[in-house]
Amino acid sequence: MVRGLLSLFVLGHSIKLLVAQGTECSGYQAKNVVVTDSSLVAELTLAGEKCNAFGEDITNLKLTVEYQTDTRLHVLIEDVGLNVFQVQEQVIPRPKSEGATSASSLLEFSYTEKPFSFKVTRKSTGDILFDTSDVPLIFESQYVRLRTKLPQNANLYGLGEHSDDFRLPLSNYTRTLWNAESPFIPEKANLYGSHPVYFDHRGGSGTHGVFLLSSSGMDINISQTDSGQQYLEYNTIGGVLDLYFLAGPEPAAVSKQYAEVVGLPAMMPYWTLGFHQCKYGWSDINVVNEVVANYSVAKIPLEAMWGDIDYMHDHKDFTTDPDKFPLDKMRALVDGLHKNNQRYIMILDPGIHNTDASYPTYTRGAEKDVYLKAADGSFYRGRQWPGEVVWPDWFSPNTQEWWTDEIARFFDPATGIDVDGLWNDMNEASSFCADTTCFDGAASRRSLPSGHHPHYHQKAQPVSHNKRADGGDKKGLPNRNLFTPPYEIHNHRGALSASTLWTNITNSDSTTQYDTHNVYGTMMAHATRSALLSRRPKLRPFVLTRSTFAGAGRAAAHWFGDNGSTWWDYRASIRQMLAFASLHTMPMVGSDVCGFNKIATEKMCARWALLGAFQPFYRNHADISAPAQEFYRWPLVADAAKKAIDARYRLLDYIYTAMYLQTVTANKIKGGLVVQPMWFLYPDNKNTYGIQTQWFLGDAVLVSPVVDDDSSSVLFYLPEGEVFYDFWTFEKVVGTGLTQRDEVGWTDIPVHIRGSTIVPMRTESGMTTAEVRGKNFTIVVAPGKDGKARGMLYLDDGESLDVGDKKSEISFTWDGKAFKAEGTFGYETDVVVESVVILGGEDGPKTRTGPWELKEGFGF
Ligand SMILES: *[C@@H]1O[C@H](CO)[C@@H](O)[C@H](O)[C@H]1NC(C)=O
Ligand SMILES: *[C@@H]1O[C@H](CO)[C@@H](O)[C@H](O)[C@H]1NC(C)=O
Ligand SMILES: *[C@@H]1O[C@H](CO)[C@@H](O)[C@H](O)[C@H]1NC(C)=O
Ligand SMILES: *[C@@H]1O[C@H](CO)[C@@H](O)[C@H](O)[C@H]1NC(C)=O
Ligand SMILES: *[C@@H]1O[C@H](CO)[C@@H](O)[C@H](O)[C@H]1NC(C)=O
Ligand SMILES: CC(=O)N[C@H]1CO[C@H](CO)[C@@H](O)[C@@H]1O
Prior knowledge:
Blueprint: H1 2-21, E1 28-35, E2 39-46, E3 60-69, E4 72-79, E5 107-112, E6 117-122, E7 128-131, E8 138-139, E9 144-149, E10 155-158, E11 173-177, E12 193-194, E13 197-201, E14 207-212, E15 218-224, E16 230-236, E17 241-246, H2 251-262, E18 276-277, H3 285-297, E19 304-307, H4 327-339, E20 343-348, E21 352-353, H5 360-367, E22 381-384, E23 387-390, H6 399-410, E24 421-424, H7 513-516, H8 520-535, E25 543-545, E26 548-549, E27 557-559, H9 567-583, E28 589-590, E29 592-593, H10 602-613, E30 619-620, H11 635-650, H12 652-663, E31 675-676, H13 678-681, E32 695-697, E33 701-703, E34 714-718, E35 723-726, E36 732-734, E37 737-741, E38 751-754, E39 757-762, H14 769-772, E40 777-782, E41 789-795, E42 808-814, E43 819-825, E44 832-838, E45 846-853, E46 858-859
Parallel strand pairs: 12-26, 18-19, 18-30, 19-20, 20-24, 24-25, 25-27, 27-28, 29-30, 39-41, 40-44
Antiparallel strand pairs: 1-2, 2-3, 3-4, 4-17, 5-6, 6-7, 8-9, 9-16, 10-13, 11-15, 13-14, 14-17, 15-16, 21-23, 22-23, 31-32, 32-33, 33-38, 34-37, 35-36, 35-38, 39-40, 41-42, 42-43, 43-46, 44-45
Helix pairs in contact: 3-4, 6-8, 10-11
Bound molecules: 2-acetamido-2-deoxy-beta-D-glucopyranose (6 copies).
């Protein structure tokens, strides 16, 4: 008996393995195919027996193919009953078809009837971009598998959030997407966000993108078959196959095409490009005041101060600690900052403390019924910074109103704290609950050592969750095991529900956390943005979020979470920035400068101050357990920071212009991205494909920092024969490939201006961005090999949500002899262009002196 059971179990196991390899599943058959100029619709019916690999096969599917634009092809495979969960429109409003046809499209869809498979081909080259014929499609209640063949040595990027190589490994590699609090940003692990989009770069024949619009937990396996065929395979635990193919063919065009699907990133207020300082563990308000004063004494520009959870009373949102951070002193701090044109930003966590009868935030939320519910209808509870907490259900109809009201009350300029932006942390959502007994357990620490994660060891229990009729409402199939699904994704925190909200709880719109887990943080960021908008309807909001999902850039900026003060993390910040800014269309990103956990050393912090100054979001932040690391703490770091911030602030309008271009669809300038990897600009040059320690800020400024531990040497790449100019000396440099530079000082960072560009710079920087806005411009012309150059300057008031016509879009051209500035000049300013500097002349740079007003075109 026992033996029989055992062999049955072993047999079951090997069937699962065969099934996972796809040899046992028969796939689908396409029938009743209807083709029009712009679309194809077909029925897909299970072609054989159900194989029930990890759940139950769904017999009838519907395929819809739509040529939406000439560069975007949409392929949707969904259940005929429309019960399988699909991401809510409020999370990602679906892009409309713009009337492309199969004839006008750059892409072509073709299919095989049985077993059903499809191919996407680039017409101009005949290149097969996607081909699912290797193994049959599996579409089950709790497991969906789709595999595509890829070329050998493919150049793949994306599928964040991760801290792995920027160009993804091709063997035995799994990208798990399941948002998780991830101290120390471990390698080969799911981190705080989920971005199921990859870029496949095929050198001269073009770049394309593939976006799977799914918030389901998944393992994306990238490897080779036994016969050596390269593949990428989606293994999701639910959802439909909602695929967008983006044709490029230029890499930056793929970024723009992706943004058109998930939403263009929000335009940032000008001041947010200043330097920010934060620390968890500033013990009281006096210390915060001292930090502000010490930056001023050290003459290091400080734009914004941040309040971590220290300011709260017992870590409760919307409270201040009466002894350490009393409200009157907080108000005085913020007043003082504002008088100096500085800013203040505060943290809010999603967990709301629920056991204190005199905590009105909780009570008001309870009255409005905004919290997630447990099986018995009571509020679902867990443990977070304040102790026991409940969590807002961002899909509940009253949640926005409650959150907006709490924000309006607490941050009321007349009676509360007049913040300039908000920070959403712990919103994966992170729970300190390791198991069901946690309500009487002790509070955990924030920074669990990696490896020390709570695992559930609970038996699988089929959970019947179907309180509604078979509605065809895309809200999730009934009768699934939502707690311990049969296919186990490689969540580095352990079980699906470990250290987060239980996946079997139901949201108020009757979807479940099982399907919506990965959008929780993004929903919070959207709610926070809306609250800030109703508080100050005319101003652009600023929200920083830890957890993200595809399209989160519409609402928020992002930092890379709780990294460490190590050279490894310093390097990781570059590849993480490249992925978020250029692929995931979230340009306002950066890591905690000088590192969050552990001890920052003087030399490393000096290098990081320089590196951070050339990344979009520039904030120094450290953990409570880490020693203070403000830039003024060490002379070397202070010098590095002053030099770095001076350069950044002179480039502020150049960066702001790139930010503007990334937030609009216009294709006025090729590129128009805030950060680009080198291969975006040299797509034919194979040497650039793997580079992850250099980047372009905008499309002119190439940054090549020292990256080796405690080193003074750097090996960087300047493409052969291309013209560059040293940013610091304006000296002309012709690229010779890999270039070694030794004795790079601790306050130095190699930066070049790419030939053929024009960079508008302020003549001087200032202690705040407000001061910088009063400085004049000098326009730096960097001619390319052909002697020509072009660039752009965007100007507005820096903060209005809708600037209307009050903006200037000025394009600059240099044809080798004549300089021209033309465009629109709707933004009124007294600031002038003092001079135009033409680099690369026989006897060095030539300066032409103005002044020219920024009221109309000019030239010489
Ligand atoms: C995907 O890769 C992971 C990790 O290597 C592996 O455990 C899992 O079985 C793979 N999934 C499938 C369906 O092969
Ligand atoms: C595949 O990767 C896993 C996890 O990184 C590792 O344990 C395993 O040894 C690797 N297998 C091969 C064949 O390289
Ligand atoms: C500020 O500087 C003063 C004088 O150097 C020093 O005593 C104090 O510890 C510093 N405080 C902080 C918070 O940096
Ligand atoms: C989720 O599953 C756990 C473990 O089976 C169970 O204790 C809990 O009641 C379930 N919650 C809901 C909301 O179904
Ligand atoms: C800008 O240039 C104008 C005209 O040359 C000059 O009057 C003004 O003082 C300059 N502003 C600054 C801040 O240097
Ligand atoms: C500070 C710290 O622990 N950094 C670690 C970040 O994660 C990588 C990869 O797991 C480690 O190598 C670093 O040491």
